[in-house]
Every structure is written in structure tokens, then in C-alpha cells.
Amino acid sequence: MRVLVADNNAKTLEFLNTIFSKEGFEVVTAGGGHEAVSLFYMHKPDFVCLDIVMPDLTGYDVCKEIRRTDETIPVIFISAKNKVSDKIAGLELGADDYITKPFDISEVIARIRAVARRCFRQNTSVDEISQSYSMGEVEIFPKKLKAQRGDQKIDLSLRELNILKILYDNKNNVVSRDALLDFCWGMHIMPESRTVAWHISQLRKRIERDSKDPEIIKTVHGVGYKYEE
């Protein structure tokens, strides 16, 4: 899933790039309004995240141009403009959400995941998203980007969902680290050597009864990971 992020502040752009990348998105970044419009038509993202105050074109102008050709793509404004009138203006242009700077990381992630669930439903066939599946005691709900163990509800990022999906589809067989990288990060992306292990570790903390003695995501040393049914 691809997101276009436009912001005139290089540090904010880099920070948002990191957040979206960790959530499993392919990220396209723009430092200005005209660039954002050009990249929108070039890359056809699944959703758009816009600053408002940018050189040449404002985020409002970019949103208007996007809505001229696409009325359904999710758009989030992230801006330092925090007046109620600013928020109303953004939402009336067709934005799905409006986040003010400075923002809390957990809030941004929660809102990103809410939009991701909408994107996932829009871009996936009914047959593909309607089926939940179980891994041990954990039930996975793809269209909700969630899992559940008993009464415990667990939010999943797109990348975490893909990790579970490839392990489930290859149950009882070892999935190599390279296969995980290709499926969950993309063949054109080369994460650091510890990236896969770190994501697996974080996912285990939330879905396993005991992350130090995992029952769902098992390590096959020197090879990869495995889910045994």
C-alpha cells in the first residue's frame, strides 16, 4: 500500500516517512504542493497525508486538485494551523482527518491505521478480506487490521498482517528471512539486517502468551521463521 506524504519541513517529512514505513507503507514524499500533485498522478497512492502551509501550493490547493479527479482516496491533513476554522476548511474540502502539530506519535499511528483499514477494504476484494483465520489461540481479522486472543484485542499494522499472512499461508514450512523481506518490505527495499528480527520480536510481545517461548512464530535458527499448526 502506497502513501504520499507532503510537508515543507524536512525533519517532519523524515519523521512521518519513518512512521509510515514502520507501519508497512511504501512512502512517496514531497516538499511542496506542485511536487505533491505531480507525484500523486505519477504514483497513484492509496492515500495522502498533507501539510497545509507549503511553498507554491497550499495543502488545501493540493486537496482540491486531488478531489477533482478522485473523490474517494483518503486524505489526512497534518498541520500547525490549529484553529477550528482551519480544521473545518480542511474537512469541508473532503479530508478524512485533521491532525495538529505538534502531534503525539501514538495518535498519528492510531489514525493512520484507521485510514489503512479503509484503504484495505477499498483495494481488496470481498473474498480476500471477509475470511478471518486462526493461528493457535489468536484470531486474525484482516479487513479490520486486528487480531484477538480471548478478550484481548490487538491492533496490527499492514506489515504485521503480512508477516502473519505469509507464515499462515506456509504453515508447517520454514519461511526464510529473504522471503519475509520480499513479501513484507518489497524486493526493492533493503532493510537493515536486524529489521526482520526486531519486527518479529515486537509482534511476539503482543500475540504470544510468552514472547520468550513463542508458540505461533517460531524461530528456525540460521534459516527463518515458522508457524506450526
Structural class, from helix and strand content?
Answer: alpha/beta
What is the gyration radius calculated from CA atoms?
A: 19 Å
Indicate the overall shape: elongated
Q: Give the helix proportion (percent range).
A: 40-55%
Distance between the termini: 29 Å
What's the architecture of the largest domain in CATH terms?
A: 3-Layer(aba) Sandwich
Please sum up the structure shown.
The protein has 229 residues and is α/β, with parallel strands linked by helices. The protein has nine helices and twelve strands. It has two domains: 2-122, Rossmann fold (3-Layer(aba) Sandwich), CATH 3.40.50.2300; 128-226, Winged helix-like DNA-binding domain superfamily/Winged helix DNA-binding domain (Arc Repressor Mutant, subunit A, Orthogonal Bundle), CATH 1.10.10.
Structure write-up:
Strand 1 (2-6), helix 1 and strand 2 form a beta-alpha-beta unit. It is built from 9 helices and 12 strands. The strands form 3 sheets. A 5-stranded parallel sheet has the order 2-1-3-4-5, with helices on both faces. It has helices at 10-23, 33-43, 59-69, 84-92, 105-122, 126-130, 158-169, 177-184, 195-207; strands at 2-6, 26-30, 47-50, 75-79, 97-100, 133-135, 138-141, 146-149, 152-155, 174-176, 218-220, 224-226. Helix content is 44%, strand content 21%. The protein is an alpha/beta fold and 229 residues long. It has 2 domains: 2-122, 3-Layer(aba) Sandwich (Rossmann fold); 128-226, Winged helix-like DNA-binding domain superfamily/Winged helix DNA-binding domain (Arc Repressor Mutant, subunit A).
